[in-house]
Write a structure and sequence with these properties.
Layout lengths: L1 E6 L5 E6 L5 H7 L19 E4 L1 H4 L7 H8 L8 E3 L12 E5 L5
Parallel strand pairs: 1-5
Antiparallel strand pairs: 1-2, 3-4, 3-5
The protein binds FE2/S2 (inorganic) cluster.
Length: about 110
């Protein structure tokens, strides 16, 4: 288990005990944070699992993939710290990761 902090759109901070080997999206959903819609179920076709990673956590993540970057570019809320949480696998190396659920795209 790896501890990750997730801030929801209302500003509430949730500390999650995440299962290693599952995606960050799967872990967030498993904890009942349904505002992360993840409509495509992790098939990287919806962009509704968009999170913003705290700058001090960003270097611990693998680089953004080509397809992930393409999908993120479609969001008006993209920032340099944007990631699709379905493409981030939780491992012990991410202990203490902090993310914020991105604003909902119109
Ligand atoms: S869940 Fe659809 S792109 Fe991540």
């Amino acid at each position: 288990m790896t501890q990750v902090t997730v801030t929801t759109r209302d500003g509430a901070v949730h500390t999650l005990e995440c299962r290693d080997g599952l995606s960050l999206m799967e872990n967030i959903r498993a904890h009942g944070l349904d505002e992360l819609a993840a409509l495509c179920g992790g098939n990287m076709s919806c962009g509704t699992c968009h999170v913003l990673v705290a700058p001090d956590s960003l270097a611990r993540l693998p680089p953004v993939g080509v397809d992930e970057g393409y999908l993120l570019e479609l969001s008006p809320h993209r920032e340099s710290c944007s990631r699709l949480s379905c493409q981030v696998t939780v491992t012990q190396a991410l202990a203490g990761l902090a993310v914020r659920i991105a604003p909902e795209d119109a």
